Amino acid sequence: MVIKEDLTTILLSAKKKSIPFILSCGSPAGSNVELERTMEIVNEIAEQNEIHLKVAVIPGELGKDYLQDKISAGVPIRRLANNNALLEYLTVEEVSRSKRIVAQMGPEPIMEALELDVDGVITGRSLDVGLYLALPLIMGFDKALAAHMGKTVECSSLICEPQSYDPVFAILAEDHFLVRPTNESARCTVNSVASHNFYERSDPIREENPGGILDTSHAVYEQFDSQTVKVSGSQWIPVNPYTLKIEGVRHVGYRTICVCGVRDPILINCIDGFLGEARKAVEKRMSPLVAGQDYELIFRVYGKDGVLGDVEPVIQTMSHELGIIIEAVSVDEARADSVCQIAVDYMAHMGYPGRVATAANVAFAYSPRECRLGKVYRYNIWHLLELEDPCEPFDIQVREFPKEQ
User: What is the β-pairing status of strands 168-172 and 362-364?
Assistant: First the structure.
C-alpha cells in the first residue's frame, strides 16, 4: 500500500508536469520478480487514474548462461571483499548453484533509456548515485559534481536537521550544487551535509563507483542561506576497466527460531557455559539421527554480544536481562525444527551452578515456542564483473501502461 501511494504521487506529478521520472525498485534485492510486482502496481495506477505511461524498464537480474559464458571466455570475476565465504574468482559451478544474480547497474543504461522518448525509467537493482547521475551526464554537467550531488541526496532528509521522511531538493550548476530540504521546519547545514560522507562508506573521501572514484577530499561546503548548503570542489578519478558489482545467493537450508529471555542474575553470570551445555545436548540427541552435523545451531545473546559476537570488546556482561534468539538451520526443515526444539527444552528445564528455582528461569516470548522462518539464502556472489560496454548486460524494454487487455 505504501509503495503504491508513493508511486502514485511520483507518476501523476511527473506526467502532469512532463518531467521524466527515474526509479529503482526491487525492495531491495532488485530481482525480476520484484520488478514485475512493481510494474503491476504501475499498471493499476495508470488504469485507475486514466493516464497513459510509456516507461523504459531495465531489469537488473543476470542470466546464469550470460555469466557462465563470460567465465568460460576467460573473463576474471573477482570477489569484492576478502571473505572466505566467497570464492576468490567466480566459477561456472558456483554460478549454477545460485538462486538469483543481480547486477548493480550504473548510470549508462539509464542514460540510454532516457533517449527513447519515454515518460520515465524504472530499473531493478541500481547504483543509488547512478539514478541521479544519468540526466546530468546527458546534459553535459561535471561528473564529479553530479555524483557528489547524487551521493548527498540519495538518502533524502538524513542530511537535514532534524531528520525526517521528507524529500530534499538539489540544484546542479556548472561549478557547484545547492541542496536544501523541502520541509520548512528543517535545514541543511555544513555539518549535516558533510557528515553524510561517512554514510555507507569504508573511506569518507573516496567512493568507488563503476568506471571511477568520487574524490571529495577537496570538496568545499558553505552555508548558502539558513536552509541551503553549497558544495563545490569534488573530483572524479576515472578507473579502467569498468566494473559492475554483481550479487547472488544460494539456498542453504531452512531456519527455525525461538525467542526467549533470561533475568536470573545467576544464569546470566554463567550463560556461556549454560549455552555450551545446551549445544552438547543437541549434539548428543542428534548424533544417532544424522551422519555428520548437517545443521547449524546459533545462539544470539542480546545484552551480551548479540550484535558483535566474538569481536565484542566488552567482556563483562552488565545487563540485568538478556534476550536470546535460538536459531537452527538445516538442509532439512524438520531437522531444523528438531535442533531448535532440543535446545529450547534444555534451556527450559536443565540446571546450572547456583540455580534456585527448577523452572521459569527462561521466559519464552511466543507459543508455540519454535517458529519456522522458511528458506535460508546466503551470499555466494559478491564480485566485480569487468565490462567494455556498461550497457551490455541490460535489456532495456519500452512498455506502455495500462496494458492492453
Answer: unpaired
